Task: structure prediction
Amino acid sequence: MSIKDRVAVIGVGLTKFGEHFQWSADDMLVDACYAAFADAGIQPKDIKAAWVGTSRSGAAGVTLADPLKLYGIPITRVENYCASGMDAFRNACFAVAAGMYDIALACGVEKLKDTAARGLGSFGRHPLIGYGRTPPSVFALAATRYFYQFGIDKRALAKVAVKNHHNGAKHPKAHLRMEIDEERVLSAPMICSPLGLFDCCPTTDGSAAVIVARPEVAKSLGHPYTLVKGLGLAVETGEPFHKPGFDYVGFPATTKAANEAYAMAGITAKDIAFAEVHDCFTITELLDIEDLGFCPKGTAGQFVAEGKANLDGAVAINPSGGLKSFGHPIGATGCRMVSEVHNQLLGRAEGYQVKNPRFGLAHNLGGAGAVGSVAILGAA
Amino acid sequence: MSIKDRVAVIGVGLTKFGEHFQWSADDMLVDACYAAFADAGIQPKDIKAAWVGTSRSGAAGVTLADPLKLYGIPITRVENYCASGMDAFRNACFAVAAGMYDIALACGVEKLKDTAARGLGSFGRHPLIGYGRTPPSVFALAATRYFYQFGIDKRALAKVAVKNHHNGAKHPKAHLRMEIDEERVLSAPMICSPLGLFDCCPTTDGSAAVIVARPEVAKSLGHPYTLVKGLGLAVETGEPFHKPGFDYVGFPATTKAANEAYAMAGITAKDIAFAEVHDCFTITELLDIEDLGFCPKGTAGQFVAEGKANLDGAVAINPSGGLKSFGHPIGATGCRMVSEVHNQLLGRAEGYQVKNPRFGLAHNLGGAGAVGSVAILGAA
Result:
């Protein structure tokens, strides 16, 4: 039995992503969730259960219960590194598909601007910095190997940054809303060779919320909605770069999650009109494009260079502007991606709308490829 | 639609609970999960998805993937304070009931002996110590109020300790396997008045695992199994003791979770033969007994004194020995309770077996009453 078409997305909400020193994580959750309630045309009391994804900005279900005064209902905190948000969405979908709740809330939040350094330090042995490696340094290894193996260079990465900032400049909720050109990317300060400043997503505060419901409930509400077609999650080792056989040019967790999601949806990568993918770094987007099956291994640079990832390309990649424009408030990102896919499918992405999409995909990566998560939505 | 009878428990496993300075959290997860695989008669490769509950002993799904080399499948980390383990079980049940996976693993772990103080300190504002209050001091407030309101004293609490240690002395996996008498409880060093040493559960390392499956799969395996009859979870504020109207003598989260679980199971408290309840402190067990509906508010002391909570009583409370005997390795406790209920229902609790039980209940409390979680299992 599959849960295809058994869960509907009926509303989404985002904070403005950015540097919100004036906002707490609580403030951002309220902002995003109430936007989603309004979008779905429901009241907080209609929420029968909730899942909140956060890495460092809360503990337990009270992370959500207290700011929203959403007391007396089940709320689960899900944490799966940078894929926490999409895994919160996935678990909410399971509960709705199981028939437990008519309407459920999935949301995510992270406050990074004033706590990031402390947060990463306390990860201990687990993620990157535990072994003295920061995220840019790990993904730089992948870029270096990819360059060597497939004969491209920094200019291919720059085209990813230019494309995503072009898209993000039109998105009212993006953190960085500015066009950039290749020259600016290539001359930017080096962060970790070969990744320069514009190869890295910014450090950002934000929250995102998604309301899911049984399709019959969605229909009865009379609002537009989309349907969950496929879900996939795969976990590999927490240290993929240490795993024997790891080739540095792709993440098996992404491919496995995508295959699970495609199988559930009964489609292939060819059926996807657009995808929000995890471009924490420009090199990551190239790996994602290949891991998700949109083009053969080693050809994503060319795919982007030829405009196939543009809004009007074969598969629009990150029409929202991606993490490059939104930053990556850890727990929020997965729900933001699902929100983007929902809005595109409903034709509500003014200024960055993909033409008549039927299926959209969201891809959230956790750790340095430790966790891959994929959700596919389709028009109802 | 309810998920009653749509999920089976097919195997359980526990580490010996205790002071395991020689073991890491990884070691304990391997020990508990492989015991559960053996109990279910399955191989690790049969696990199609997993949920791991932990508060401080890991991050993301890799918490489980790495020690078990369980790569390439979906693994979610769930965190809900001291109820993390049972919420991991709950989410695994939803996914199986939704038809996503034939066989799934729910487990929990905590390494407390060498990290507890640091762990609690890093909770920040959220739980108890964030406001300068430790768990004993918070539950001592409840005890003091309960004494005042219902006219009992420390001797009523001592009977809880005596009963639970009596049961736990017979359980091979318990941390403290010793009988104690009331005199010893009453003369023990004071921790936080009126709670003495034997009113508090010990600080313990441990792990527990539960395998769930679709009932048709359970049947085909030919092993004994039990069925999930009811599940409930409720979250209140993270600071219940600060909430206007809080009466200090019961936790609404427990009652709400229990009502949800009873309704799903189509039974009432009267149908429960035994219950594993969250006796982090002796006073907590009295509150639990009332919150779960086993006797009217204010009468739990008498209920215990009259032997109604004994193994051969009206409702055996903590036949395993409870947290008083097992300690409370945070993420592990909820799965341990489900494991105990499963074994009792299958008649496998040698030495502490309840006679012919039909329904058993597990109750896991998180925070100082912030999270209530209840699971009801029944004979297949």
